[in-house]
Amino acid sequence: MVERLPSIPVYKLLTALYTGVMACLCSWAIFLTPEGRGANMTVLAPIWALVSSFLNIHDNYDQSCRSVVGAFIGLFFTELISIVITAGNTVEYSDWIGVAVAFPICFLMALGDAATGSKLSKVFRSDVAMEAMYIPIAFPNGRPFLHGALTAAAFMVGSAESFIATSILNAFNLLPRKDIPALPAFAKRAADYYETLTAYWTSGMEHADFIDRQRKVFEESWRAASREAPTPELRSVIYRMASGLIALRDTMNDGRYSEDMLEHIWHPLMPDIVDMRLEVVYWLRTTAKPIRDDKEIEQTDLMNLATELSSRLSQASITYSEKSRRGGVLVIACE
Question: Where are the membrane-spanning stretches (predicted)?
């Protein structure tokens, strides 16, 4: 039996290649200091370029900016602790005293860790702040001020390079997308939800769990699309479409249609309803992709189908009412 080979999503593969390239491009920082002095600090630049590089522009900006803030915080405490210890020690800086003083500060910085749920985690990376402070404090090699500056600068350089490179790619629209853009995703989700509603319309609440799972996905998509809508007019269209589909779902709370309703109204209109449903779903899914020629939209027969269905529905309702007056069918109250 041949086993299926493991596969790697293209987006993850591109991200891995991108982070590797960023690390290579930032390797110059290792050779910046003369005779390799401080290279054990500047090596953090390519390492952090790899860590903070993302092909998603929002993730990249978030990681890069928080890393820079964390590096500044670490640099501040490094220099502060070094000044205090050097001033209080008549001989020279003592790394043992530095570690002892830095230890409680590490606990304060840990409040910015994402695992704590603190809002500080959205401001700076606590791991960067602690590393930028602890490395030069614990391993100063007699030069805590210089090594503190080199360590913080390495984090900043790695983050800045990733920030700049990703911004350039984004400016030229060269970043691959992990997810479908919000507006096309909304069109597709609307088509799926409309198709589900019309398929289970007559069943009432029998399939409520499945329908509501679809509704949850649709609601997430229309909210995301409304945030991304470039104009108020388009946002208004999204709101109207969403409210229409949600209202359609709410009508199912009244339960199943009666046998008389199905026989005298629903079944006679089924061909028109199916045609209408197919046309609506087709155009919703078509608009999820770029349309090269606006005239393609004019070819739709939606308005004619809607007018014809409305006319036949009115006629079927009149016929149903006449039969109900003659006592042939049971009258169903409708809202």
Answer: 12-32, 38-57, 69-90, 96-115
Distance, CA of 189 to CA of 183 (rounded, Å): 10
In tens, the pLDDT along 104-133 reads 999 889 988 888 888 899 999 999 999 999
Whole-angstrom distance, CA of residue 44 vs CA of residue 52: 12
For residue 89, give Cα distances in angstroms to 70, 76, 84, 101, 249: 28, 20, 9, 14, 75
pTM to 2 decimal places:
0.59
Helix axes 10-25, 144-171, angle to 10 degrees: 130
Residue 239 one-letter amino acid? Y
Q: What is the pLDDT of residues 147-201, one digit of tens each?
A: 899 999 999 999 999 999 999 999 988 888 767 778 888 888 888 888 888 887 7
**Residue whose structure tokens are 């006592």:** 327
Token match 């978030």: residue? 62
Q: φ and ψ at 23, to 5 degrees? A: -65, -40
- Return d(Cα 211, Cα 148) in angstroms, integer: 58
